[in-house]
Write a structure and sequence with these properties.
28% of the residues lie in helices and 29% in strands. The protein is α/β, with parallel strands linked by helices. A hairpin with a 5-residue loop joins β1 and β2.
Length: 155
């Protein structure tokens, strides 16, 4: 699969965000969508990132932008994570990592000499017309939400 680049059409997706609801790319039609992929609920970097996006939720909303975090964790894990840290961002359960694969962020990783497949922390800013406006790969959580908001606001 060729790597997505800015200007490409965003791959369509559908993800459960609660027991009753799914979120699809078309749900963001006419709005910006910040689609941020993170490895695992309630780990240090992922928590820092989710709390930062939540802290800026009102600013993203004013900028006509939806924020959706995506990880391979299930809905129960997401619900516990959101409750524990009082998160307001949407969290999508990509348990089969199909969306991560479509966006090219399901990668081979290594830790302590072991290799495994996992999510590479990455963010995609999708414009209201469904094109990829900005892409951040191998994201560092600290300061990232602020940088994304700046990009949303034309910075």
């Amino acid at each position: 699969m060729t790597e997505l680049t800015e200007g490409d059409k965003a791959p369509a997706f559908s993800l459960p965000i609660s027991e009753e609801e799914t979120f699809t790319l078309s749900d963001a039609k006419g709005k910006n969508l910040v689609l941020y992929f993170y490895p695992k609920d309630d780990t240090k970097g992922c928590t820092v990132e989710a709390i930062a996006f939540t802290a800026l939720a009102e600013s993203f909303e004013k900028a006509n932008t939806i924020v959706l975090g995506v990880s391979p964790d299930g809905l129960k894990s997401h619900a516990k994570f959101a409750k524990k840290h009082d998160l307001s961002v949407l969290l999508g359960a990509d348990e089969d990592h199909a969306v991560a694969e479509a966006y090219g962020v399901w990668k081979e990783k290594s830790m302590y000499g072991k290799t495994y497949m996992g999510t590479e922390r990455s963010t995609f800013l999708i414009a209201p017309d469904g094109t990829l406006k900005r892409i951040w790969r191998k994201v560092k959580a600290d300061g990232h939400a602020e940088a994304v908001l700046e990009a949303v606001n034309g910075g």
